[in-house]
Amino acid sequence: MAELSTIARPYAEALFASARNDQASSLESWSGLVSELAHVASQDDVREALTDPRLNAAQRIELFSGLVKSPLSAQARNFIELLVGNNRILLLPEIAQQFEQLKNQHEGTALADIRSAFALSDDQVQQLVSGLEKKFGLKLKPAVTVDADLIGGVRVTVGDQVLDTSVQAQLARMRDTLAA
What we know:
By secondary structure, the chain is of the alpha+beta class. Helices cover 60% and strands 14% of the residues. Strands 2-1-3-4 form a four-stranded mixed sheet.
């Protein structure tokens, strides 16, 4: 079976193209709606209900649409109908992730996953992000988490690039050097 990201990609690309051409709503509002749709689709009870063979497509569409708190435009409703019709509604979390990546590429931004051994102040995060933006040449949106396993330092992931200055990584390099 094809990987989920491969199946989700055309849906994410089509949705992004539609959202970019939508004059009534901004990309940011579409991003919020797609995120909400993904959240609803990721709930175990919802997943179970949407795969119930006793429900037809129209009932699945109504069930899913009723669970979404945000008002649905005609385009959003059509997208839900398309996903239900193709039995792809449960791919929404993956579609949302790829939609965000496309949005970030379009805006020239990227998500910076920053893991620190200790809590960072807002000033420290700003200084770190400023230096990382120069290094990567992108506007970065930081997501900071504390990971005590790092012992000290930080590990930053931007896309598929990792910058690891943690004590844990340094100890692993020393171990590998000594073992060689």
